[in-house]
Amino acid sequence: MVNGVSSAAEQAEQLKQDGNLYFKKNRLGAAIDAYTEAITLCPNVPVYFTNRALCHRKRNEWARVEEDCMRAVRLDPKSVKGHYMLGLALLQRENYAEGIKALERALDLGRGAHPNSYMVEEIWQELASAKYKEWVHESAKRTLVLQKLEKSCEIALQEKLVHDLSHMMDDTDEVFSSTSEQLAALKLIFSKAAEADKPTEVPDYLCCKITLDIFRDPVITPSGLTYERAIILDHLEKVGKFDPITREPLHPSQLVPNLAIKEAVGAYLEKHGWAYKMD
C-alpha cells in the first residue's frame, strides 16, 4: 500500500514536470492534460491546480481559472498564486469586492514570504488597477446621483419661483434675487459634494522619498525616515548598506514596518480611490 501511494505521488510529480515543460513550449493543451493526470493521481496537491489554472489563464478561460484556484486555496489557504489568479478571475466577471479581497490576501501572503519578489509587485499592480476601476465605477454612480439630485433641486426652486410670482403683484425683483442666490448656493453645495471624487496631489508624507509614489508597504529606519520596503531593500542589496538620504549605515534587519503611515495610507485611499491610478 505504501509503495502504491509512493508510486502514485512519483508519477504525479513526473506529470507535473512534463506539464511544466509543455507550458514553457506554449503547448498549453498538452500541459493541461499532464496536470489533469497528476490531479487524478494526487487530487490533494494544490500546485497541480494552480499550474493548470495558469494554462487556462493564458487561454483566457477564466471560469476554469476560478474553478481550479478555488480548489487550490481550499487545499492550501496560503497559496499566493491561488489567491492571485482567483482574484483575477473574479475581476473578469466584474466581481470587484471578492476579486479585490482575493488579491489583497495574495498580496499579504506574498509580502510575508518574499517581500521583494516580482510577483508581489505584479499583484500590487493588479490590485491597484482593480481598486481604481472600482473607484471609477462607484464615482460614476455617485456623480449621476448628485447630478439628478441637483437638477431636482433646481426644478423645485424654479417651480417655487413661478408659484411665488403668481401670487404677488409687486416686489418681484426681490423674489428673483432670492431665487438666484438660492440657485448659486445650491451649485456651491453640490460642487463641494463632488470634490471628494476629483483627483488632487497625494500628500508628501504618504509618499516614498525615493519613488515619490504613494506607500504600499512602508518601513521606517533608525534615523526616522520612511521608505517603500521593496525599494529600500533593493537599494541595500545593489548599492550598499547605508541610508540613501542620511548616508548612515543601515542593515535590512533594522527596518521596521511603519504601521502608522500604512494605516494613514489605507484611510486616504479609502476616501480617494483615484490615488490608486498607476502612471
Helix- and strand-based class? mainly alpha
Inertia-based shape: flat
Strand content is: under 5%
Care to count the β-strands? 3
First-residue to last-residue Cα separation = 58 Å
Q: Largest sheet at a glance?
A: 3 strands, antiparallel
Portion in helices = 55-70%
How large, in whole angstroms, is the Cα Rg?
28 Å
Sequence of strands across the biggest β-sheet: 2-1-3
Order of helices and strands: HHHHHHHHEEHEH
Low-confidence region ranges: none
- Determine the number of helices (DSSP H or I, runs of at least 4 residues): 10
Mean of pLDDT:
91
Name the descriptors.
three-stranded antiparallel beta sheet, single chain, 3% strand, mainly alpha, 279 residues
Condensed summary:
With 279 residues, the protein is an all-alpha fold. It has helices at 2-24, 28-41, 46-58, 62-75, 80-92, 96-113, 118-166, 172-193, 229-238, 259-271; strands spanning 218-220, 226-228, 256-257.
